[in-house]
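Field log, afternoon session.

UNIT: design team B
ACTIVITY: writing a sequence onto a fixed backbone
BACKBONE:
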């Protein structure tokens, strides 16, 4: 017997933005595998034309390891037929009016056919250029909403944001929407149009000054971080995402709106198979650097909760929320999808598990020898970390600098290389500090109600749409699923 979620997806036409992204791919695979009777999926991706869009769909989505279960179950030919019948790759860009679609016939067809709009497209760089962050995360979200309102059959807009739009405060964060003009700093109200005009003016000034592309890029990154911190957010990414939420919440009219706020998304725990991941996500850079023996010291509070959630659980929550709220005129619902409230894991626990893993199963160096890891030093404040870096690295570096001045042919390259690495390390630590020392817990009462709603229906008791973090055994997941997944799919070892 089909579950409610599977039934819901049947005969639906769905627009998904950000299709080559990690989360979107997990969603597309899930829908094709569990509901091949979905009517159609329009996948919006950046490409110059239809041919380039189809090429990206093939190489970056369908042909990757994530689809190996479908490929095995259906066979290569049947999978290709299914993709050809059900998926329409659309070259476009959410930062542009009408999502950048140039084909008027395609536009009219999409507006007449689409039932559900799922916006996953985003730039997730913490220190993104302000013009790009505003274009994609803020006004891009509004462009998707305006497009959705032109879809005559639209039953729901599901927008993926991030739980960290809450900023750096401590305590329990509730699943509540932003009001237009909200700010986290207690300063005067935030005016998004003023932010946009300020960005345009700054860009114009830089171009008139004949600045290089590199100088323009750095200035726009600095502007984003400055404006974010002025209004109480730690970086451009979460600031522009918060403004995106404000715009769509304020402009939605009667269109049903669901905002999903995931925490730190990690590898799949179950579907389509355990451990699939693409690229190094927030915590993964730390795990890999530690496994490679490069992390001797780290900024973190051992007691801080690291809110992790597997990608397939996020996708399951998205589908469950869409099923629950489709067609509910005028609603706006926020869902935190994370683990800190129901099943918290601390950085200290993650450190122990990771150290134990790489002690038993060390990575192999290029010369074939195992990489021996030490427990390392964890420092709980940026002041302590900076002092450690000064004593351990910066003072020896100054000695190298003196040698470089006296004997410029001697250690010059070594000094330059080390100096660059230390500056990069300090910049990354400062960028990630709000999350490494984060003291908040994400309330998930709405998400818990969604889980209870699912469990009340006997048909939903299979594991296909599980998103309860209480089912995660962190030791088992990190040891037997997540780290092996990183090694296999990211490090390719």
């Amino acid at each position: 017997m089909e579950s409610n979620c599977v039934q819901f997806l049947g005969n639906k036409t769905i627009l998904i933005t950000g299709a080559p992204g990690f989360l979107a791919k997990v969603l597309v695979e899930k829908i094709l595998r569990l509901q091949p009777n979905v009517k159609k999926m329009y996948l919006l991706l950046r490409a110059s034309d239809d041919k380039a869009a189809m090429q990206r769909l093939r190489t970056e989505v369908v042909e990757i390891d994530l689809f190996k279960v479908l490929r095995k179950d259906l066979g290569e030919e049947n999978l290709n037929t299914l993709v050809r019948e059900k998926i329409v790759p659309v070259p476009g860009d959410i930062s542009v009016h009408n999502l950048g679609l140039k084909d008027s016939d395609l536009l009219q067809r999409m507006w007449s056919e689409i039932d559900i709009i799922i916006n996953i497209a985003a730039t997730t760089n913490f220190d993104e250029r302000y013009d790009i962050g505003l274009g994609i995360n803020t006004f891009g979200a509004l462009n998707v909403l305006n497009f959705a309102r032109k879809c005559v059959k639209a039953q729901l807009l599901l927008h993926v944001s991030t739980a960290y739009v809450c900023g750096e405060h401590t305590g329990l964060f509730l699943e509540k929407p932003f009001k237009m003009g909200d700010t986290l700093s207690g300063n005067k109200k935030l005016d998004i149009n003023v932010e946009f005009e300020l960005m345009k003016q700054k860009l114009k000034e830089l171009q008139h000054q004949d600045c290089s592309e590199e100088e323009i890029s750095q200035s726009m990154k600095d502007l984003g971080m400055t404006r974010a911190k002025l209004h109480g957010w730690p970086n451009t990414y979460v600031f522009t995402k918060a403004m995106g939420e404000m715009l769509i919440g304020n402009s939605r009219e009667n269109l049903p709106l669901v905002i999903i706020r995931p925490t730190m998304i990690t590898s799949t725990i179950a579907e389509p198979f355990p451990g699939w991941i693409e690229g190094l996500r927030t915590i993964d850079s730390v795990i890999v650097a530690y496994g490679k023996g490069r992390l001797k010291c780290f900024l973190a509070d051992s007691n801080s909760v690291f809110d992790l959630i597997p990608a397939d659980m996020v996708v399951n929550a998205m589908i469950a929320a869409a099923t629950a709220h489709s067609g509910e005129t005028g609603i706006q619902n926020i869902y935190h999808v994370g683990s800190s409230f129901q099943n918290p894991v601390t950085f200290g626990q993650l450190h122990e598990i990771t150290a134990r893993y790489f002690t038993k199963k060390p990575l192999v160096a290029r010369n074939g020898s195992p990489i021996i890891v030490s427990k390392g030093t964890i420092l709980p404040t940026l002041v302590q970390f900076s002092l450690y870096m000064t004593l351990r690295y910066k003072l020896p570096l100054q000695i190298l600098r003196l040698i470089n001045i006296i004997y410029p042919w001697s250690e010059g390259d070594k000094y330059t290389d080390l100096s660059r690495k230390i500056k990069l390390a300090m910049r990354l630590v400062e960028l990630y500090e709000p999350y490494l020392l984060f003291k908040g817990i994400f309330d998930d009462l709405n998400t818990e109600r969604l889980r209870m709603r699912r469990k009340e229906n006997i048909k939903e008791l299979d594991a296909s749409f599980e998103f309860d973090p209480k089912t995660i055994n962190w030791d088992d997941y990190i040891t037997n699923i997540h780290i092996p997944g990183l090694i296999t799919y990211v490090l390719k070892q």
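LOG NOTE: Residues 382-406 form the longest helix (25 residues).
NEXT ACTIVITY: expression trials, pending approval
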